[in-house]
């Protein structure tokens, strides 16, 4: 699992306040969200019509990860996920 984080770090992304040790789940969700964000970004660059559902999925997975390993330090990331989610929903109309 690796060494525990130093005492002076603001949060530990492998621990959930509600579920305890979630390192494996957190790694899986972060890799999936990153992959989907990259795919959505490439889709936007090539003007593919399917970018919005992929961006919505990426933002939802990222928000789930942030809520799972919640820390006030991550609120900006949650706000960015909400903005991406809303903009992608509006683009689908």
Per-chain topology:
Blueprint: E1 15-16, E2 20-21, H1 23-45, H2 51-68, H3 75-92
Antiparallel strand pairs: 1-2
Give a quick summary of the entry.
By secondary structure, the protein is mainly alpha-helical. Helix content is 63%, strand content 4%.
Description:
With 93 residues, the protein is mainly α. It has a domain of 57 residues. Strands 1-2 form a two-stranded antiparallel ribbon. A hairpin with a 3-residue loop joins strand 1 and strand 2. Helix 2 packs antiparallel against helix 3.
Largest sheet: 2 strands, antiparallel
Distance between the first and last residues' Cα: 45 Å
Helix content: 55-70%
Query: In terms of per-residue confidence, which ranges show pLDDT below 50 for 5 or more consecutive residues?
Result: none
Described by the principal axes of the CA atoms, the overall outline is elongated
Tally of DSSP helical segments: 3
- Rg over CA atoms, rounded to whole Å, is 15 Å
Beta strand %: under 5%
- H/E series, N to C? EEHHH
Q: Mean pLDDT, nearest integer?
A: 92
Number of distinct beta strands: 2
Main β-sheet, spatial strand arrangement:
1-2
Helix/strand-derived class? mainly alpha
């Amino acid at each position: 699992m690796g060494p525990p984080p130093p005492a002076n770090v603001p949060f530990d992304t492998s621990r959930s306040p509600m579920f305890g040790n979630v390192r494996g789940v957190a790694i899986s969700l972060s890799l999936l969200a990153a992959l989907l964000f990259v795919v959505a970004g490439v889709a936007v660059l090539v003007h593919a019509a399917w970018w919005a559902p992929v961006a919505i999925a990426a933002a939802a997975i990222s928000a789930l990860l942030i809520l799972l390993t919640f820390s006030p330090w991550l609120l900006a990331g949650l706000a960015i996920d909400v903005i991406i989610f809303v903009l992608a929903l509006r683009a689908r109309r």
